[in-house]
Every structure is written in structure tokens, then in C-alpha cells.
Amino acid sequence: MKEGQEKIYYITADSYAAAKSSPHLELLRKKGIEVLLLSDRIDEWMMNYLTEFDGKPFQSVSKVDESLEKLADEVDESAKEAEKALTPFIDRVKALLGERVKDVRLTHRLTDTPAIVSTDADEMSTQMAKLFAAAGQKVPEVKYIFELNPDHVLVKRAADRLKMKRSSASG
């Protein structure tokens, strides 16, 4: 475990390959932080009861958590200005997705991927929902969080297209 690391990170997936290639791991991979890759069906259920080890809490990387955002490099002022410019785009995505998502926001935990879908810390994970469905249980509705990478070219181009479309419509 890396010195100063406050949590033990893990990810659950249908297979080892899916866990290993998850975009949720991009920042952690970049920072050299080890992550437990769990691929057995029971692992998600087990992690709900196994909350810590050796005084360190477990944290799913597929759930939104401040400690993951803190791992991202400090955002400089020019990046903050660029993020402010993305506000109309985020508002548009929120309007398009409507009630299907809990929130649309920017994240700095992505390096190569334009966007990810995460769950809130208190929501049922996608893996747990799959476990419930496989067991024939009723799966409660979960509202996901759509996180966008403000540094990805796809997000920037989509925001620019929206800006051009709005300026041509008003002008």
C-alpha cells in the first residue's frame, strides 16, 4: 500500500479482465495505487460486510468518493476557467438525461476516457444489482452519476459544438 494512502481501493466486475480494464482505475493506475480486483459474484456482497482491514476502510472505485478526487492533481486556475466554460454543456447534458441520472458533473479521476457512470456512496452498485437480479430479487431503482472528463477532446468538442450552435441561433 502506498505511503499516506487512507483507504484500500477495490473494484468488482463480472470478470478479472473487465475489472482490470475499467476506466474507474485510470487515475489510480497513473498514481501507482494498487486496487483489489474482485470478480466473483459474491465479492460485492462480501464487501458490504467487510468494511475495513488493519484499520483502513475499503472504498469501491466505482462509487463517488472525495478521496478519489483528492488523488487527482491540483487543478490550476486556467483549468478552473475552462471548467466554467463547460457549465452550459453540463446543463444541457443534465437536461437531456433528465430523471435518468442523479447528477452530471466533471471529474478529474479520468485520464483517457471521456465519461463514466458511477454510483453515489449510499446507492446500490451495479454489481450488487446484477446479483439481486440473478437471484430473482426485486432490484431497487438506482440513479447513477454521469461523470465527464473535462480534459478529454470529445467532451471539449461537444461543448464547443453546443456553444457554436447557441451562438448561431442567437446571432
Q: Characteristics of this structure?
A:
Rossmann fold; 3-stranded mixed sheet; 171 residues; alpha/beta; Hsp90_fam; chaperone; 43% helix; 4-stranded mixed sheet
Q: Based on DSSP secondary structure assignment, what is the total number of beta strands? A: 7
Oligomer: single chain
Q: Which runs of at least 5 residues are low in confidence (pLDDT < 50)?
A: none
The percentage helix is 40-55%
Query: Which descriptor suits the 3D outline?
Result: globular
CATH-derived architecture: 3-Layer(aba) Sandwich
Q: Report strand %.
A: 15-25%
What spatial order of strands do you see in the largest sheet?
Answer: 2-1-4-3
Radius of gyration: 18 Å
**Coarse structural class:** alpha/beta
Distance between the termini: 56 Å
Textual characterization of the structure:
The chain is an alpha/beta fold. The protein has a single domain, classed as Rossmann fold, CATH 3.40.50.11260. Helix content is 43%, strand content 18%. A hairpin with a 2-residue loop joins strand 3 and strand 4. The radius of gyration is 18 Å and the shape is globular. The protein starts with 7 loop residues before the first strand and ends with a helix. InterPro entries: HSP90_C, Hsp90_fam, Ribosomal_Su5_D2-typ_SF. Belongs to the heat shock protein 90 family. This is Chaperone (Heat shock protein). GO terms for molecular function: ATP binding; ATP hydrolysis activity; ATP-dependent protein folding chaperone; unfolded protein binding.
How are the SSEs ordered, and which strands pair?
Blueprint: E1 8-12, H1 16-20, H2 26-31, E2 35-38, H3 41-49, E3 52-53, E4 56-60, H4 66-71, H5 77-85, H6 87-97, E5 101-106, E6 115-118, H7 126-134, E7 144-148, H8 153-170
